[in-house]
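User: Please predict the structure of the protein below. I'd like the answer in structure-token form so I can feed it into my own downstream comparison script.

Assistant: Understood. Taking the following sequence of 145 residues as input:
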Amino acid sequence: MDRKEFLNQLTGGLTVTCVACMMEACSKDSTTPGGGGNPNPPPGNTALLTVNLNNQLLSINDSEAGNGVIVVRIAAGNIASSFSAFSSVCPHAGGTVAFRPQTLSFNCPVHNSNFSISGAVTSGPAATGLAKKTVEVNGTTLTVK
């Protein structure tokens, strides 16, 4: 038995299938998830989170999280400066931070790092603050980028 025949019997023909899958995933014209497209779109052009201000973030200290970001209403009015948005990924070990309205802080439950409402570290082990995100408001639609 030669090597090709042995590998084909051993893998049940999966080698050919895997090669075909890899070729599809690397195709520039592919529209399937994981295939083609630009994995690093130009900065500022991709909405990470969209919020309808008619029914979300209505009160000061309300928060919404999703898609790796967290946004908090810090003041009245539907203008960008009324909101703060950050990555919800803890810079220490990648845990997901949550907003605590009672203390106006963010907490990572993994190792108990805490961050102020401005995203700065208030207690570690995290050594750096939360990554700030851009907030845009157009009418009653808030977008975090």
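That's the full token string. Residues 1-37 form one domain.
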